[in-house]
Amino acid sequence: MKNHRFITTETNPETFVQSAIAFLKKHASDKKVFCALSGGIDSSAAYLLLKKADINTIPVFIDHGLMRIIRGKEEREYIKELFPDVRIIDIRDEFLPQIINEENAEAKRKLFKKAYSDTISKVIDEENCDLLADGTILPDIEESFGVKITDIQETMTLEEEKALLKQNKERFVKSQHNLNIEYDVEATIQPVASLTKDEVRRLLDFLEMPDNLIYRKAFPGPALAARIIGKVTLNNLEFEKKVHDIVESKIDNYY
If DSSP codes are grouped into helix, strand and coil, which group holds residue 175? Predict the structure, then answer.
């Protein structure tokens, strides 16, 4: 399996969009693409670029039970309003029992990563998708591989990436739920891999998305499991959802 990443130093939104569309057409013009939508700004930007490039795309949101509440509304409701064509897959009953009582942060990430990848693999198989698109951004790559984005090639095999990770393991920060996974597709495709979070926000603004998406607060891939201190329990999860909603609502006035 290969990974295609749009590698560029261009951050001007208008020029970036034009170049990203060319990148997507180069790698995906005649392909069927699975797009993992989390409700966050990175995957939303990736999906919008795929639509701009007129790529045959299946957008999917995986509800694993660890997503935040936004002003009293569950994330799956929010994403459906934003992107009506998104397919919601509910794995709460299967996944939550696996992570309940886990307290190690890296173990939580690995459990989440497996559930996430298993669900994606199932849909890819059902829909006969050729490519997998996601919202991997620059910090995800640099934290996982311990390298600068300029050290990454546009197209790399999974074996090449594993070798790169091994060479730079002392600079590893943390694993990512959407990197270094092998799927039954020709390749993954990551159109916003060169952007920082603020650059993604500027891109969404250029694409005329609503402020409540553009200024959404950063949220970890493993969701609330990464923000619960100690063991994951149903009580802790419900408490964290409420606290998270209150805090984000309050700071909306400032950022």
Answer: coil
**Average pLDDT taken over every residue of the chain:** 86
2-5 and 187-190: which strand pairing? parallel
Phi, psi of 62 (to 5 degrees): -100, 115
How remote is the C-alpha of 109 from its chain's centroid?
Answer: 14
Does 25 score more than 70 pLDDT?
yes
Judged by average pLDDT, the poorest of 28-32, 49-53, 133-137 is 133-137
CA neighbours within 13 Å on the CB side: how many for 173? 10
CA–CA separation, 174 vs 197, rounded Å?
18
DSSP string, 7-44: --S---HHHHHHHHHHHHHHHHTTSEEEEE--SSHHHH
Residue 173 neighbours by CB distance under 10 Å: 11
Residue ranges and CATH numbers for the domains of the chain are 2-251 (3.40.50.620)
Task: Decide if pLDDT at 212 tops 60.
Answer: yes
Sort 152 into a burial class: Cβ within 10 Å, 0-12 / 13-18 / 19+: buried
Contact 183, 2 (CB under 8 A): no
Instruction: Report the predicted TM-score, pTM, of the whole model to 2 decimal places.
Output: 0.86
CA distance 139 to 21: 22
Angle (deg, nearest 10), helices 92-99 and 105-127: 160
